[in-house]
UniProtKB/TrEMBL annotation:
It holds the Pfam family Metallophos. InterPro entries: Calcineurin-like_PHP, Metallo-depent_PP-like. This is Metallophosphoesterase. Residues 116-351 form the Calcineurin-like phosphoesterase domain. It comes from the Bacteria. PROSITE patterns: PROKAR_LIPOPROTEIN.
Amino acid sequence: MRSYAWLLVFGLAGCASVTPDSAVEHAYLVRAHGASLIARALVRSAQCPAMIVDGQALPLQVRAPAGEVPARPVAQGLTKPARFDLTVCEAALPAGAHSARVGPFALPVPVSAPQRIVVIGDTGCRMKQSDDAFQPCNDSAAWPFARLARSAAAQKPDLVIHVGDYHYRESPCPAGQAACAGSPWGFGQDTWTADLFEPARPLLQAAPWVFVRGNHESCARAGQGWFRYLDAAPWVAARSCDDPANDAKAAHSDPFAVDLDGQARLIVFDSSEQAGAGEVFAREFAQVDVLAQGAAHAVFVSHHPVLGLGLPGKGVPIRVASKGMLSSLQAARGGALFASPVDLALHGHVHLFEALGFTAGGTPTFVLGNSGSMTEGALPDQLPPGAGAIGEVRLDAFHTRAGFGFALLERAGSGWRLTEFDENGAAALVCMTSAPSLHCDRAGQRPPSH
Ligand SMILES: [Fe+2]
């Protein structure tokens, strides 16, 4: 009898460590440095499940346990503790894997180098007391991110780049505002689910993602969720934004390179914290040059635009989006801007579409911060006299579009082709780069060249 009792106890303990499929609520692939891929799963269980890779079980490890982070002071009004209900689990996906599954989720394991790259940015539903800005989160016309994510997934991308600003629900919906009534707010799991994981589900299941950190993911805002869910580096408590005393350690992350193929790579840059960042950025821009070495084509990707235009404001019709980024780049390069092999720059932060081409010394630039969050105004189709330069370099091409949208980026000849779609998947513009300039046509005007 005693041996049977021991078997019973052993058997129950064994069962308790198995995570049921139903506990896995989200699973996705994160691109990290080089060619590496990280599988992540968000699980309603203290234990992590196994990932099934080509039929073999590979245990996921706890990246960040579930728990509650005490309320921290915020700039935009009310605050409360951030509750993270789900355990974040992860493991590196072995090179050469053909299939991978976590619970009910088949992960989008790439079969070849990415050719079709979807780019989105600034996607969450704005609820911000200090600006009295409350986007109707329950209205898919006013906050179309879920529809846009389905349209982008229908493009069958091989890779998705999100240029930052995922989380926007910082303040409670005011009483009597039906359009956002019932929405979660604050920095915990429920808002991340509502702003990103639920609406983005089809796109998270379509391809691996490159996650870029936006200013909404700084430590003073949604940085805790950024480090738990999206940052490509290992999670450590001292660099988690959980304790404000450690914010300086988590304010910046080193740039890293994501290989696209033997020819091209992305350089991913954390611009989220702009205050007092001049020296840090100058050092990191020098790292960008090292990361780009050896590539034929390199794409600089950051949330804040370096050579981009911001919206009119305070009596200034047109302004440079981030003077700090521009001066830091020039400080790192003795007054110069990007140089070969960096032949394209992708950004967000400004909630519209911009395509900018330059004379010698510039880099073709796209601003793609129009994928769901509340619009903030528009730029004129024709720039006024005097707005033809950014820093030391002159603009020679400028296209803008004010509606919601996403982009599809592909290599084309010696440059890049970027197609801008509306949130329903209708192509609006086709742009061809030829560094340092570019040219855009309305979609359908000219067949895209190959
Ligand atoms: Fe932003």
